[in-house]
Structures are given as C-alpha cells and as structure tokens.
Specification:
This protein is mainly α and about 140 residues long. About 70% of the residues lie in helices and about 0% in strands. It has 4 helices and no strands.
Length: about 140
Amino acid sequence: MTTNTPFNLQEQQALAAALDDEYKSHETYQGVIRDFCPVRPFINIVQAEARHISALLALFAKYAVSPPANAWRDQAPRFASVHEACMAGVQGEIDSVAIYERLLLTTQRPDILEVFRALRSASQDRHLPAFQRCAQRG
C-alpha cells in the first residue's frame, strides 16, 4: 500500500482505538500521581504516554482526519493504593500489547505500522516490566 492509497475507515478506526488506549493510560496514570504524589513508575510512564499521544495525533494530522476527543478525561479509574494501581498497570499494559497486536493487522502503511510497533514495544518491553516490579514491591 502506498501513501497515495486513500486513507480508509479501518485505518481511521485503528488510529482512534490506539489513541483511546493511550488517553486511557495517560489519564489513569495522571490520576495515580494526583492521588499519591509523583511516584515511580507512574511519573516516568505518564510522560511516555504523552509522547505516544503526540505520535498518534501527528498521524491524524498527516492523513487530515479529526482525532476523537479524550473520553477518559475525569473518567479514569481510581485506586486505594499505589500497589493496586501497579497491579492495574500490569493488566493495562498487557491489554495495550493485545490492542496493538490487533491494530497491526489493519494497515499496510509503513508510518502507521512503525508507530504501532513502537507503542506496542514500549508497553511490552518497558512499561509492563516497570509495573511488574512495582507490583512485586507491594
């Protein structure tokens, strides 16, 4: 598929799903920081999530597609403890990897595939292990 191929609905929906997942993570981790102060790994990962959102928004702009609004603003889950939040972070990153595995099948565009692979890798190789360490600390 070349960049001359019209941007299709499946690709638009894939970008929207990716952005929704990144918004959810960002808002959730921001909430943990608000509730429990700047604690690791949330303080580091929330910054990465903001970069992920920017990368996806750049693709929306490139293909002249309006991005969906952040439906997670003021809707993120709350947690009773940092440990509980870390456990949820583990599951959230596992879910993110699965989302990107599915989304990688929706396009042949090299730029979108590159971003999806990078975001999947960040979840799998950096965020998930950080939350697993946090959860193990109790």
